[in-house]
Amino acid sequence: MTTLTQPTTRPALNHLVQLDGVRFIAVAMVLIDHWTAERLPPILFVPLGSLGVTIFFVLSGFLISRILLSGKDKLPEPKSASLGGYLKTFYIRRTLRIFPIYYLTLFILYALNEPPVRRTIGWLALYASNLYIARYGTWMGTVDHLWSLAVEEQVYLVLPMLLFVLPRRLVMPTALLMMVGSVALRYGLMRHGSTWFIGYVSMPTCLDAFGLGLIMAYLWLYQRPRFDALFRSSIGLIISIIAFGLVVWGARTTAAAQPGLDYHVNNIYAHVWERLTASFVGFFLIGRAILGFRGPMKSFLESRVSQYLGQISYGLYLYHNFIYNAYHTPQTHIVLRVWRRLVSYVPTLGSSFAFEFVYFLVITIALASLSWFLIEKPINRLKDRYAY
User: Fold this and answer.
1) Is 262 a residue whose pLDDT tops 80?
2) Which of 192, 281, 312, 351 is 20 to 30 A from 237 (CA-CA)?
3) Domain tally for the chain?
4) What pLDDT, on the 0 to 100 scale, is given for residue 382?
């Protein structure tokens, strides 16, 4: 009988190619959801936007936890003496990756007098848009989507210190506590009658996704045989997709039974279980992609298109709502004015929303590409100076 021993040093943090393809899938879900809102038949309704965001949360939980845990392993004893450098390296690298185009976007939109940016610039600048939404129980217009970036930044404030002080033996129990606590908090908020916005956008109520990412990172670093056994087959992914579908069906059935009320009100499926099952979809999708899909899925995830769009997914996500938002973009918006002009020249373009969708997509990809090559990629090279 062979005894599995846990390695004391980290495996190499190599680039996991298929994860770029997963990023593309996640951001594509968000774009489809935000651009086709209320255009698809009700029978086809699936909360793709929230699913895509949750997959991003799980992915962030895995990647950041992997970096933090392996970086901690490299520190000399006593590790407490290296806390300052450990945190400094992490936050400098995160700042270089996330802040430049985020704050540049806010600056440009503020200068262009974009109403929600002008009205809530303090909240946005502090990565607190999710707190604004939770406090006032309302979305913020074209900056709605920035709530998820705020959640991630708030996790980044807590997770590095937490993983630094935790003994390795307590990492898995802590991840499980994050999951159970997050689900319990969402349930408690629903039972208390709190607005559903609080349970949807608050950082603590999103921790089941990050907890699953932490579990994945722990297994990948320290219990690789268990990781391989868990994700070698696609059965977990299939079961999680079925579970997510059943929860969505339950949410729709509950909503239909209480006409006149918001989809999320008194809806335990939408308020509590949807994110958890979506998190498991992300968990098994990402884990399988780390080991490497085969066949058609491998071809899709590793195709040049998927790889490139996954690489620029941050820009795609950040900019897409300013190109078009089904709920908030006024007809006077320059993107829609140009579209109407194109349709006047080529009337066939107006025969299907598919053409308009492609138009929005081309503009968003072009903008994200310019952002990547002119700003993000050059700045990202600076991260090499701050290696773990």
Assistant:
1) no
2) 312
3) 1
4) 86
CA 177 vs CA 30, 171, 198, 214: distances in Å: 28, 10, 20, 11
Q: Cα(257)–Cα(264) distance, rounded to whole angstroms? A: 12
Q: Is residue 177 part of a domain?
A: yes
**Backbone conformation region of residue 166, classed left if phi is above 0, alpha if psi is from -120 to 50, else beta:** beta
CA torsion angle 90 105 131 68 (round to 10): -10
pLDDT digits (tens, 9 = 90+) for 270-322: 999 999 999 999 999 999 999 999 999 999 999 999 999 999 999 999 999 99
Does some domain include residue 253?
Answer: yes
Tell me the per-residue pLDDT of 75-119, one tens digit each, with 9 for 90 and over. 888 777 688 888 998 999 999 999 999 999 999 999 999 999 999
Q: Report the candidate in 311, 319, 323, 57 with the shortest Cα–Cα distance to residue 208.
A: 57
Specify the DSSP class assigned to residue 139. Answer: -
Confidence (pLDDT) at 44: 65
Alpha carbons 203 and 153: distance in angstroms, whole number:
9
Report which residue type is found at 130: N
pLDDT higher at 298 or 386: 298
Q: What are phi and psi of 14, to 5 degrees?
A: -75, 160
pLDDT one-digit tens code per residue, 163-202: 999 999 999 999 999 999 999 999 999 988 888 899 999 9
Domain that holds residue 30: 18-386
| Nearest C-alpha neighbor of 58 from the set 207, 253, 249 | 207
> Is 13 among the domain residues?
no
User: What single-letter amino acid sits at 207?
Assistant: L
SS3 content of the chain, % helix, strand, coil (to 5): 80, 0, 20
**Phi then psi dihedrals of residue 337, to 5 deg:** -65, -40
